[in-house]
Automatic annotation (TrEMBL):
Domain of life: Eukaryota
Name recorded for this polypeptide: Uncharacterized protein
Species the sequence originates in: Panagrolaimus superbus
Length: 88
């Protein structure tokens, strides 16, 4: 039976560690990397099947971007609808 003063016993204690921040160092695209580099084995592989070309093939990038924009708008709408339930 739990203690009346401490009714909840946590078996997994949360450890809070201090955060360290380092300055962001972007990858240098001007200078080549030092030392030998390896290529991924997927670079030399040919695709197994070719994509079927249809009337909509040139428009696929635009259609994909419109689809992702729509999904993003739905996500933003859900977040705005549930903003009142956010615990602070």
């Amino acid at each position: 039976m739990p203690d009346s003063k401490h009714p909840f016993i946590f078996t997994n204690k949360t450890q809070i560690l201090p955060m360290t921040f380092e300055r962001y160092r972007p990858l240098s695209l001007i200078h080549p990397p030092e030392g030998p580099t390896q290529l991924s084995p997927f670079v030399t592989m040919k695709p197994e099947t070719k994509e079927k070309v249809t009337l909509l093939t040139p428009y696929k990038p635009v259609l994909h971007s419109m689809y992702y924009a729509h999904r993003h708008a739905l996500l933003i709408g859900d977040l705005l609808d549930n903003y009142d339930h956010l615990e602070t």
